[in-house]
Amino acid sequence: MHGGFLPKSSTLRLYTSRKEGGRGLLSVRATVRDERAKVHEYIKEKARTDDVLSECLRQWQTEEEWLETPSWEDKPLHGMYHRQISEVAYVKKSYQWLEKARLKDSTEALIMAAQEQALNTRAIEAKIYHTRQDPRCRLCKEAPETVQHITAGCKMLAGKANMERHNQVAGIVYRNICAEYGLEAPSSKWEAPPKVAENGRAKILWDFQIQTDKMVMANQPDIVVVDKQQKKAVVVDIAIPSDGNIRKKELEKLEKYQGLKEELEKAWKVKASVVPVVIGALGAVTPKLEEWLQQIPGTSDIKSAVLGTAKILRRTLKLPGLW
Ligand SMILES: [Zn+2]
Question: How remote is the CA of residue 276 from the centroid of ligand 1, in Å?
Fold first, then answer.
């Protein structure tokens, strides 16, 4: 009724704890199992001194063991995302948005359905449900229309839609830095930050093209923070790739800005570092992200990119009102 669950989404995942990437509902089955285990413990304890309970225990042990509950991670479609990110991501933190982002039920349900391939993309309709001939993307007509393609691969969305999501995440990082140094940040989240903000303690550049003596591969990172007292500069660049690519992207960003880092150290006489902030479109993060974020003044944590992704999915797939 309120869009809190999509029809093809995983019901097993409803009863998985939120820490492990589920919705955290309590199931009758699990409750019965827990209670049963407790009673079993009690009887085992008392059986030593009680004949009736001792007989009870003997009979119980011959009963068959409780059937293993299947898990959503093992399901071919529903668990595919989880298995994929297990190889590249820090799984514990990759589901953190479930606990921290405080999304609406329907948004949370949409992101989970996207992870579970439970959305009717054209590729899924063609390959899994055999209801459609053409599996190609409705926007670019070049690649199969998968969740991964829509959320991080389609060139037709690469401009405006993905930029909006990128700037939303970058804006949060920017605001945190401003707060740390007592600089004023734009009051509306839709307003772009100024190219340069400066006071006695720090200078912050936003999407600023930096002139260097030597040509460097990239000279326009998302954010540069110069701490004037500590004589330190931090080059921050943000990316929201598809979740399977987060590690590759992180390395790519690090390498891309090494030249700029060296030039800044020479020209500005500071100690500079490059900090990549890479978050998967569906929330996956690398094991190193926490460490990176700690190098950015004022930033220890970050809301995920999933809100922007939900918007892209809604628009592209033209989902009915609830989602
Ligand atoms: Zn496309």
Answer: 26
Distance 162 CA to ligand 1 centre (A): 13
Is residue 205 in some structural domain?
A: yes
The CA 31 to ligand 1 mean position distance, Å, reads 45
User: Given this model, what pLDDT does residue 37 score?
Assistant: 87
Rounded to an integer, what distance in angstroms lies between the CA atom of residue 28 and that of residue 34? 10
Taking the centre of ligand 1 as the mean of its atom positions, its distance from the CA of residue 165, in whole angstroms, is 17
Å from CA of 107 to ligand 1 middle:
22
Q: What is the pLDDT of residue 65?
A: 59
Under-50 pLDDT residues of the chain: none
End-to-end CA distance of the chain: 11
- Answer whether residue 290 is part of any domain: yes
If one counts the domains in the chain, the total is: 1
Q: What's the pLDDT at 101?
A: 82
Centre of ligand 1 to C-alpha 167, Å, is 21
Q: Dihedral, CA atoms, 289, 294, 299, 301, nearest 10 degrees?
A: 40
pLDDT for res 287: 94
**152 lies in a domain?**
no
| Residue 123: per-residue pLDDT | 94
pLDDT value of residue 64: 53
CA of 147 to the centre of ligand 1 (A): 10
> In this predicted structure, what is the pLDDT of residue 58?
84
pLDDT, residue 66, reads 58
What pLDDT does residue 246 have?
96
Cα separations (Å) of 61 from 13, 38, 39, 47, 55? 31, 15, 13, 13, 10
Q: From the CA of 308, how far away is ligand 1's center (Å)?
A: 17
State in Å: Cα 159 to ligand 1 middle.
Answer: 12
| CA 156 to ligand 1 center in whole angstroms | 6
- At residue 73, φ and ψ (nearest 5 deg) are -65, -25
Q: What is the CATH number of the domain that holds 242?
A: 3.40.91
Domain that holds residue 215: 161-306
